[in-house]
User: What shape does this take?
Amino acid sequence: MSVLLIAEHNNKELRPFTLNAATAASQIDNDVHAVIIGHNCEEAAKALSKLEFVKKVIQVEAAYYENFVAENFAPVIVKLADSYSHIISSANTFGKNLMPRIAAALDTSQISDITKVIATDTFLRPIYAGNAFATVKSKDTKKCVTIRPTSFDACESSGGSASIEKAEAGEEFSKTKFVKREEVKSDRPELGTARVVVSGGRGMQSGDNFKLITSLADKLNAAIGASRAAVDAGYISNDHQVGQTGKVVVPDLYIAVGISGAIQHLAGMKESKVIVAINKDGEAPIFSVADYGLEADLFEAVPQFLEELNKLNTIQK
Amino acid sequence: MKILVAVKRVIDYNVQIRVKEDNSGIVTDNVKMSTNPPDDNAIEEAVKIKESGKATEVLAVSIGEEKAQETVRKALAVGADRGILVKTEGVVEPLSVSKLLQKIVEKEKPDLVFMGKQAIDDDCNQTGQMLSALLNWPQATFASKIEIKDGKLEVTREIDEGLETIEINVPAIVTCDLRLNEPRYASLPNIMKAKKKPIEKLNASDLGVDISPRIEQIRVEEPPKRKAGIKVASVSELVHKLKNEAKVI
Assistant: This one.
């Protein structure tokens, strides 16, 4: 039976993790159909039809789908679910909010945040903040699965030529109203997909000092991350938080500045290819996962880091 | 208004967990247990709402083994009025938990149900959303701010892109983020008082819900260990290594 992928988008473009979820879906079954629910989302539906693994697109339109309210989205997918063995989305805040609502309606025990497809009914997933991995096998006939985007490569965004079918909208759920979204606009790479991430922690001591992180990130064309402590202290907004209850990142280079390395933070970054830690406490747990540790005062080390980078002829982008 | 708060007993967040030698699960014997951290935020918020005069009762519910009573008792010690423990054995999946909670909700008829957005043991992040689907109630997940306005809730949600605000009608489910508030500590007199507060004990079977697992846990293993790194003596050495050894800049 086919697999149904739930596309995440902003009505104009696909959100990048849809491409990772498409790859995961294709590892379960070749016949990947993708549903896009939105308002005036023609462009995003076209982009979806061009994805490498997508064989068919189902577009569902209504004004009340503009803001991704799970109470509106879930019934649409439940109605489509009959024809599919699996329903797949990313385990980001979009999929986490939506999928359990679908799974409960289908009386299915959801499998969250998988990092590997072992068989069509068997998956690998992290538990306890990634301090253990469980191999789990679903006994439900229909499977609801969210995937950890950083564990699956993004598929090609071209090459596909899926047909786009329209499906009927569901009823509006009137008891939930979208009010507003405050997105932090930035020209930087997205935290979830950036090649380099520079993160600051409590050691930054103030929001103002985060300028040091910003300068370093500018130089390296990096995304900016933060520990929960830094977000809680108000140094930086929540969308930068890396960790068990924030974002999971797997960049080529992760630079942790003034971050002690609580297990909840390590959960979000310890799969990074190369980890650098700058911390004045030589005993900080972050050093246990760092490839390169520098025991130093960050307020001296980061300006020196910038100077050294200025001396280089080229820096990878 | 009556608020039901679901609380889960988990391995304490400070404990470095260990995988059992036979790979059948995680070692829980003689390990410090406590309330799932964002469930503490859920209780705190409910108690604050009661203290502000907008709620009349806070009911704490836990589902788990007999010892989960301690988790209910802790909620009572920080201000919940009474507790319910639904006794279960072994693994209870979020779908089953939400079905059990549905039964309790149908009986107790709360106006709001609060719980943490995620349990830090299985990291599923499902129960609140599932319960709201079963009840067909509005859901506000990952809440970092809750305001009660004219019988509705305005909730600020933490999402990947930043913050989102939604307005939901009551009755509703709210799953709480760690940034929602600062949970209080129980004072000794309140711990003593909590011992006198009632906890009703039920068996899962009394509620007529099939909670047999649908997911078989085949194996649990430790993640691959990272190779030990090195300490560099200076920033220039660090940059040199990143450029020429790791080749990442």
Notes: Chain B has six helices and 13 strands. Chain B touches chain A through 82 residues (CB under 8 Å). Chain B has a mean pLDDT of 96. Residues 4 and 113 of chain B are 5 Å apart (CA to CA).
